[in-house]
Design a protein that fits this description.
The protein is of the alpha+beta class. The chain is built from 16 helices and 31 strands.
Length: 623
């Protein structure tokens, strides 16, 4: 009888503390996707999963003098969902500059305009009046009530003409740089995502949150004036018609070598013989299975190029920059090394696009095959910025993440992963991930620290940045330390392969890592991703033993699992290091005992340099 009672107690204890990922909180919208079997608890698409496809044929004209971009697009929308669609919703991202629209931050007044002007809408050859009640423009979302529904498993054609004025003084992710240079993203009316979670995703763009895109093919023609060169997401189709032979030969050679070649120098600009003919030029690009399309134009920047093998093809690598840039002359080589690292180590996936162009604009912003980067303050900053923006090619682009709701899924990963790259190529005494730990220790447990699973579109400002970039990257760092680089990279690779060209959720990510780890990591996911709290270890108690040793009790004050990294210092100068993996805190364990030699013990130190800890002042114990 006594044994039976003991077994019952043990059983109750195990059931109380055991945690499963499938038991973690899900919103109603997400839960129904599992009920409908569009998702599965294996971390793979369910039997009824669907994703719609959107192909764009765009003809655009950009006037640098007026900064007016006008265009017309023909959209082929393929409805793979089981639903009939009565409306179409389009993102008008440039309406962030529209007078009266909602914005998360002040943009001044110089660039405020009347927003995107829609001049024509045609649906399946039916003209829709732009000023009719069927067309509503609100908070950067254009809704169109359709004259006939888009049936399941059918195609529809939407034609739209539009124009807007590109910002000239306050660029947000894109705009005008040094007068004659322009990075142009978020520039065309773009159909919103219709998915298995929400149906239409109609959250307008107000500045902080980024984007969520479906995949499709792009056929784009861009007309610009004489002397301007164009670089874009897609592959240039008519280079022979545009470039004179000398430059065409340089471009072609750069695609076959790992040497960095100077395609256009300052001297070349002065000669003015880059393009074959004078006058305006039409630049034609194509891109396949891509979630977005951006381009850049310049008549003063210089251009370096090289290439690198990734998977079964060579990737064209380009850096386009102002002559007096501090470090951009190294960016072509850095970019080549970034792609090599990402392709061969973490996440160990082939680079998903045939080319990458780093454009010396401002800030740091990613697009498929294009990045818009300003000048960093030092070489480590350049290494980070370049690797960060290029790594976004995998997350969110190749995997189609929803950045509006889960910004941390890409920003957190792509804040952590460059640490490997910087450590490899930095010439300084770089301490792996130290700056991010410092940032976490300073802000953890403050008003800006909110759980990762709170939708990103419900927060902004400092809380948005801390959640999306820092709290999340620290969580990924800890996961890496627990799993090891090989397993961490294997899980990322598997996640990237399974969800390429689709729209994964955080739960799909969790289940994939569980599978590779060969354990349910709910004990880690729950505190770090779902709960209020922070990392905080401290010394709780010490007491001597009879064999000249001391028992140290380490307390985990909030339950957030982190490793114990303890250093014992002695009067003799000797140091003893003790490291315990973060899984010691499984099953809600709050304390952990350590046994260290007592003779001559001077000080015990819990490392907070590379271990997150919100309260660092209780991590040293002197004897």
């Amino acid at each position: 009888m006594k044994n039976l009672i003991y077994l019952i107690i043990i059983s109750i204890s195990v059931n109380t503390f055991a945690q499963k990922t499938s038991d973690l909180f899900m919103t109603k919208e997400i839960r129904q996707s599992y009920d409908k079997e569009t998702r599965s608890y294996e971390g793979i698409p369910g039997e009824n999963y669907f994703i719609n496809k959107i192909d764009y044929s765009i003809k655009a004209n950009f006037n640098p003098a007026t900064r007016v971009l006008s265009g017309k697009e023909k959209i082929t929308y393929t409805n793979n969902s089981p639903d009939s669609l009565s409306f179409i919703y389009l993102n008008l991202y440039q309406d962030i500059y529209k007078k009266g629209n909602q914005r998360d931050f002040y943009l001044g007044t110089a660039d405020i305009t009347n927003g995107v002007r829609i001049t024509k809408i045609i649906y399946n050859s039916i003209d829709i009046k732009t000023d009719s009640k069927e067309v509503i423009n609100k908070n950067s979302i254009l809704s169109i009530k359709l004259p006939e529904k888009i049936a399941p498993n059918s195609n529809s054609i939407i034609e739209i003409n539009w124009n807007f004025i590109l910002p000239g003084t306050v660029p947000v992710r894109m705009g005008t740089y040094n007068k004659d240079n322009f990075f142009i993203g978020l520039w065309f009316p773009k159909i919103a995502v219709y998915d298995d979670i929400l149906g239409w995703n109609t959250k307008g763009h107000s500045g902080s949150q980024e984007f969520y895109n479906d995949f499709g093919n792009y056929d784009v023609e861009i007309t610009v004036p004489d002397k301007y060169n164009v670089w874009a997401t897609g592959v240039l189709q008519n280079g022979k018609d545009l470039y004179s032979n000398k430059y065409l030969n340089r471009i072609n050679k750069s695609k076959e070598t790992e040497d960095v070649l100077h395609i256009i120098s300052k001297t070349d600009r002065e000669k003015g013989d880059i393009l074959k003919t004078k006058g305006s030029h039409v630049w034609k690009f194509k891109s396949e299975n891509t979630p977005d399309f951006a381009f850049a134009i310049s008549k003063t920047y210089i251009w370096d190029a090289t290439s690198i093998k990734s998977g079964n093809r060579r990737i064209s690598v380009n850096a386009v920059y102002k002559e007096n840039s501090k470090d951009f002359h190294e960016v072509a080589n850095i970019s080549r090394n970034v792609i090599k690292f990402l392709s061969e180590e973490v996440p160990n996936l082939p680079y998903p696009y045939p080319q990458i162009t780093a454009f010396n604009g401002g800030g740091g912003m990613e697009y498929p095959g294009m990045v818009n980067d300003g000048d960093a303050s030092n070489i480590n900053g350049t290494l980070y910025l370049t690797s960060h923006e290029i790594a976004h090619s995998f997350f969110p682009f190749a995997t189609g993440l929803n950045e509006q709701k889960y910004a941390w899924m890409d920003e957190g990963l792509i804040t952590f992963i460059p640490s490997f790259f910087i450590e490899r190529y930095s010439e300084d005494d770089y301490v792996f991930f130290k700056n991010n730990i410092d940032w976490y220790n300073k802000n953890a447990g403050t008003f800006v620290d909110v759980p990762l699973m709170i939708s990103s579109d419900n927060i902004n400002g400092s809380a948005y940045r801390f959640q999306s970039y820092n709290h999340s990257s620290v969580a990924f760092y800890l996961l890496y330390k627990y799993l090891g680089k090989e397993k961490f990279a294997k899980a990322l690779k598997q996640f990237g392969e399974v969800w390429k060209g689709k729209h994964p959720l955080p739960y799909d990510f969790f289940y994939t890592f569980n599978k590779v780890a060969e354990e349910d990591l709910a004990w880690f996911w729950k505190p770090w991703f779902f709960e209020m709290g922070y990392a905080d270890l401290s010394f709780k108690k010490t007491f001597k033993t009879e064999v000249n040793r001391t028992i140290i009790i380490i307390e985990n004050k909030t339950g957030y699992p982190v490793p114990i990294d303890l250093t014992a210092e002695y009067d003799s100068g000797k140091k003893i290091s003790i490291y315990k993996s973060m899984d010691i805190w499984k099953n809600n364990k709050k304390t952990y005992k350590l046994n260290v030699p007592l003779d001559g013990l001077k000080k015990l130190i819990l490392n907070t340099e590379t271990i997150p800890d919100a309260y660092e002042n209780d991590n040293i114990l002197e004897f």
